[in-house]
Amino acid sequence: MSFEKLGLRAELLSAVNAQGYTAPTPIQTRAIPVILKGCDILAGAQTGTGKTAAFALPIVQMLSEEPPAKKKRQPRTLVLVPTRELAAQVGGAMQDYGRRLSLRATVIYGGININAQIVRLNRGVDIVVATPGRLLDHVDRGTLDLSRVRILVLDEADRMLDMGFIDDILDVAAFLPEKHQTLLFSATYPDSIKRLAGEILNNPSRIEAAPPNLAADVVTQMVYRVERLRKRELLAGLIQKDNWDKVMVFTRTRYGADKLTEQLISDGIAAAAIHSSKSQSLRTRTLEDFKRGLVQILVATDVAARGLDISGLPRVVNFDLPDIPENYVHRIGRTGRAGEKGVAISLACDQEQPLLVEIERLLGHKIPAKRLAEFQPKNDHDPDIVAAKRKLKERAAKKQKKAIAKSSAGPAKTRNPGKKRKNIKKQ
Ligand code: AMP
User: Fold this and answer.
1) Does the beta carbon of 334 lie inside 6 Å of ligand 1?
2) Does residue 394 share a domain with residue 248?
């Protein structure tokens, strides 16, 4: 398949050529012609499949074929994304393709001053790429008019729902004219996505870049069984032994990301953390440093990492297994991007066994396990184990003390005692 055969204009063919894309990816081959026909789509595609160009190219083409606005340009396409980083990335693609056809795209997200965004919107734009919260802020202020939008894209919709954006999405959809085309992209298909699709899509074409809920098979997966307290030592060992470069490491919490980063730095490894408590400018700078190779290990939480376009990422490490199995698929989608091979390594301790089972159930197969002799469970006299057990005991004692103090502070509320009595009688 070639881009020419997909029916794209010469200007866009030269744009993909300039990007160095020689042939469309499977999602591009399937989605572009259907979008150009004006149909709604429900597309299963992870980051790394080329999904951005799969919607950006046909949208830019369709907008360019409409007669130019007589008065101020009003947005005709709205792309909703879960994170600022993804907004910047998708916005960049829209600007790049759009510029060639005299279209204007702008990016709207929270966490930065709103005035510059208002100025840009006032100048008139054709395409808005936005995170839902800040977008609604503009609508409420009357600084953005959505009444001309005829294409709505929900990018990484599953992630937006995970982040609690469902009401915002439905609110935004309610501001659009009744007749519009909707393109929904999601890496996974939980029930919440099926419900949303049922609500906002009109007879959609279903397009799959990869089977639903399955991680890209260009990624080699493995899991190292290791004690919780020795994960950092194992990770540092792997990084140093095999001279790992450009690794993205996922932790479950922001605190965990910071702590691991500090420890890796003290092991002499150039690491940096990226998470939602860091300022936007710091996140952007860290990402740039990582891309340029100044930072060797990027430690990230799920929210911060979602949608980041880091090409040529050879390895992803799950330092903690994710609580939500779908996030495993998102995480390992960072590697094995557009035609490249990748490795996803998970470090799992005994306490994470139930999470591992859930992930393997979602994948439909077991992840090959590795055990390193030096990281096998230690005996009970090991000082690390003794210290960890003591800590757990102290924590439990503290919790108990708190509970006792609470209960002696006043009578505990009983819930519906009458009902309880009645139940006892019945038995
Ligand atoms: P995306 O899934 O949109 O985040 O894209 C993932 C990566 O694939 C990006 O770095 C794109 O530049 C790249 N890409 C997109 N389309 C193609 C293509 N047809 N050929 C090669 N690389 C591509």
Assistant:
1) no
2) yes
Centre of ligand 1 from the C-alpha of residue 193, in Å:
24
Q: Which residues contact 278 (CB under 8 A, 6 or more apart)?
A: 286, 304
The band of 29, judged by pLDDT with boundaries at 50, 70 and 90, is very high
Ligand 1 centroid–CA 372 distance in Å is 36
Is the domain of 232 the same as that of 200? no
Q: Domain of 144?
A: 3-208
**Residue 418 domain-assigned?**
no
Q: How many Å is the maximal CA-CA distance in the chain?
A: 81
| Number of domains making up the chain | 2
pLDDT, one tens digit per residue, over 370-397 is 877 777 655 555 565 566 667 767 877 8
What is this structure's pTM? 0.61
Taken as a whole, the chain contains a residue count of 427
- Which atom of ligand 1 lies at the shortest distance from residue 89's CA? 4
Is the model's pLDDT at 427 over the cut of 70?
no
Q: What are phi and psi of 261, to 5 degrees?
A: -60, -45
- State the CATH number of the domain containing residue 260: 3.40.50.300
